[in-house]
Every structure is written in structure tokens, then in C-alpha cells.
Model the fold of this input.
Amino acid sequence: MRDAELEQLVKALGLTRIAVVYRDLVRRAQEEKWPHRRLLGELFSEEEAFRRSRALELRIRRANIPDGWSLDTFPFHRQPGVSRAQIEELAELDWILKAINLIFIGHPGVGKTGLASSLLLKALFDGRTGMSYKAQDMLDELHRSIADRRTRFLMNRLARLDVLLIDEMGYLNLNTDQTNLFFKLMDTRYRAKRPTLITTNLGYDEWGAHLKNPPMVEALLSRLKQRCITIEIEGPDLRNSQDQA
Done:
């Protein structure tokens, strides 16, 4: 088979990276007298790495992570309210395997979203699935799904995610349906042993009044806190400089 025919076959099979590197690797193999097995290994290694990279890019794009810091760039030196050692331990991602929820509590600007988003990004790099939602946006979408009968589909999609980040839990305007849907989602993820990250400006004692259903909130917190790490951040507003929180 001629090289041109082989290249056309590679393209037809969707081997995108191999189609790009084929000529260079074949020339190198001839110059260095590689055995056929090594050439095949190099070609398929290039394709596998390319597909892994594309899959990661797709997961990150779909996750809708807000712009902000990574754990490498988070200004720990300016936020004494955060234990760097604790965050670095969380970056090992054992909390995902153990289905442990992470709740970040603190005033606006202290870095809750930056830390939670960075841990979600770390999970995506580890091959996990995940999404980031503003709390109000997520609950509005769930409420709209009632009208077109997509609630079960949407609920199942959110429940299956390895990691779900619900950001800004506290700046909400909820109706009864939304409160019920939020409880159902958290209960479903609890039963599926999927961890949830929540950032909020509310202490646990404020959730009942905020969600306007104290008995339901008590049951919700019982599930959330059964397997949970609470990170309360008391420190300066990082947005007073050019950094983002």
C-alpha cells in the first residue's frame, strides 16, 4: 500500500493525530531503523495522548468553570483564613472516592469560588466528570424543566456527575418548587455517593430561614453533613486588589 493511500485510510478511520505525525515518524523510523512494533507503538501513543487531551478540553469546556485561580496561583499568602495544607490535601481527591461533600462558608471575596473551582478543575484533570453552576442558574434551569417535562432527565444528568459545584448558595430567590428540587437533587447525589461542592455566605443555622422550609433543610443538612468537610474562611476580601475571588 502506498503512503498516500495509507494516509487516506488513517484519515477515514478518524485517527486524527496519526494523520498529522505519520510522515515524520515513518521518516524517523527509517533513519533510526526502528522495528515495526516500535513505530506502531509511537503512532498509537501519539493518538492516545491526543485523544486524552481533547477529552480533557471537552470536560473543562462543558464544566463551565468560572475564570479564576488554579491551586498553583491561589494567593494563600494573602488569605490567612485558608489552610494551605488542608487544601493541598484535598487536591489529592480522596474526598471524591469517599463521597465527602465540601462546603465553603465565608463572606464575599474571601476565595471560596476560587478554591472550589480549582478543586473541580483538579478533578477534571484526574479524568472525573463535573459541572459548575451558579446556584440560582441551576435552580432556575431545574424549575424550567418542569414545563417541558425534562426534570427527570436533568436531575439524572446532574446526579451522575462525579463532582457538582454549586456556587453562591445564599444569593437566591427561591419558590417552593425550587426548594423541593434542590432537596431532591441533594438526596439523589447522597444516595448515589457523589460529592457536592457548595460555596455560601450562610452559616448552617441560616439555611432553614433562607430556604423557607426548616424541616426539609434539617433533613438536607443531615445528609450533606454526614460525609462532609466544612471550610469556614475568615479573612480579607481578596477582590480589593487585582486578583479575583
